[in-house]
Amino acid sequence: MTAHTPLTVLGIETSCDETAAAVVRRQPDGRGEILSNVVFSQIREHAPYGGVVPEIAARAHVEHLDGLIARAMDEARLGWDDLSGIAATAGPGLIGGVIVGLMTAKGIAAARNLPLVALNHLEGHALTARLTDNVPFPYLLLLVSGGHSQLLVVEAVGRYRRLGTTIDDAVGEAFDKVAKLLGLGFPGGPAVERAAREGDPTRFPLPRPLAGRPGCDFSFSGLKTAVRQLAESLKTDDAAGTLDPRDRADIAASFQAAAADVLADRTENAMALASDLVPPGHRRLVVAGGVAANLLLRERLEVSARTFGYGFVVPPLKLCTDNAAMIAWAGAERLALGLADGLEASPRARWPLDPEAAPARGAGVKA
Ligand code: KG4
Ligand code: ZN
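Above: inputs. Below: predicted complex with zinc ion.
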């Protein structure tokens, strides 16, 4: 198999609370096409607990994955012999779920004699813009998801240079926690965005941690604490401690504005820094990961990109949140370079994109 023939890859994603399968084709000139893309969201299973329960997630992946793979193959109108390879998320993520997806992929690869790609989930997010917009390397990436907030230069498949990361919480995690303490339910990001639509973002002047400081690192825990204290101070003092809907909407809007300001500030520093690393014709800011679905953030970053002379690329909403098309695509990019993995590939709970990057300073660092 060479990069001179089209590659058709089945992708499997099971690292968190979406069970997903997709088939993607990569043409030798680098163009991509999604032949099928099915996602089963486990939101209903986890909603009663207000967050993702790892054991429930792993069991739901076991229950749904085979059916989803069959559907993805059907919708692509393909048989196993039409595939060039199979790619599955091998980490980072909830290890029970990762094991389900990777072992299923290994089973199919062994039975059908197909090459396997054991993929880094973050590489899936990082390369999606090449599937949707054929973006050439290198480019600047803001990766914002439930577990990660990072700024990276994407130099090539498998080559990432980290410019900044969070020193405490990831931004998606902050959205989820704020949703919880405002009683907005789960999943948090879309709920906060919905509530914020009715709110006044200027009513509460919340902190913008690290904004105006040099560097590209993020911090969100102080913002989250400020939201908690604000919410407590506004709660009526009946036993349930409920918030007035007006206050709730104004807090959501004020939080979202603060988070967007911080992300824009750090990304602007990265664009200034990256001008040495990304040549003028390549200056594009790509935003990826679940939080990239946030409309205010998209608008805010588009303005920043324009100000710094960068093009702006953000995948359509359903390719921002977790999906298997991004896994199939990143697998195809790897196979085009001859980068398959052996059947001994291990699942990994933690797996940084840039292993060379110095550990972030700060307490409770997760990325
Ligand atoms: O990439 P993703 O689907 O899963 C991970 O790899 O983590 O990201 C999920 C995160 C969650 O924290 C979710 O609350 C957040 O993305 N998210 C959003 C929005 N949609 C999803 N955050 C803000 N606004 C949204 N519209
Ligand atoms: Zn993700």
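The mean pLDDT is 94.
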